[in-house]
Amino acid sequence: MLAYIRGKLATVAMGWVVVEVQGIGYRLHIPAMTPLPGIGQEVKFHTHMVVREDGLQVYGFSREDQMECFLALLDVAGVGPKVALAVVSFLQPEALRLAVAGGDVNPLVKVPGVGKKTAQRILLELKDKLKGPFEGNDLSESAGPVSGQTAAAEEDAVAALLSLGYGQAEARQAVDKACKKTAPGDVSHIIKYALKELAPAK
Length: 202
Known about the structure:
Layout: E1 4-13, E2 16-21, E3 24-29, E4 42-52, E5 55-61, H1 64-74, H2 81-90, H3 93-102, H4 106-109, H5 116-126, H6 146-163, H7 168-179, H8 187-198
Parallel strand pairs: 3-5
Antiparallel strand pairs: 1-2, 1-4, 2-3, 4-5
Helix pairs in contact: 1-2, 3-8, 6-7, 6-8, 7-8
């Protein structure tokens, strides 16, 4: 099993690269928008190998948490490497974790190849596997002025919503409403309530 590959970037194409290591070129499927150096420069990718009937495929990720999300998605029924790669290409790990924590299908259904049923299955099956980015960090119990913590938590919540594709105005409004329903400084709960505010009415 390949844990990672470090070598020189030899080829860059749409959705894949070739990394040369001691004269051997490894072709890696990578997420779209992966930041890359110039040809000939050193790169390192965390890797996962998928064995298929028609051969082996290696997937590479510049961020380890991105690969963790990819592997979690592969455990979801009906989600293969192609769809999992599309999800991590479209959503950064923080955004995916926020969507799962808030039970929000909206970011997922925007991913090419992911329908509503698949998105709902992803949310259901990853609920206990992907922890929210702020889980375990209870700002309301940490030291420091409560007012300062509250303001910082609100700004973090707004920034998280912006990363999911919401506009500045709607994100701010949702956070303001959420802050009236949860403890000051609790970022994870603010985000969860804000996502509920932003969810379309049924």
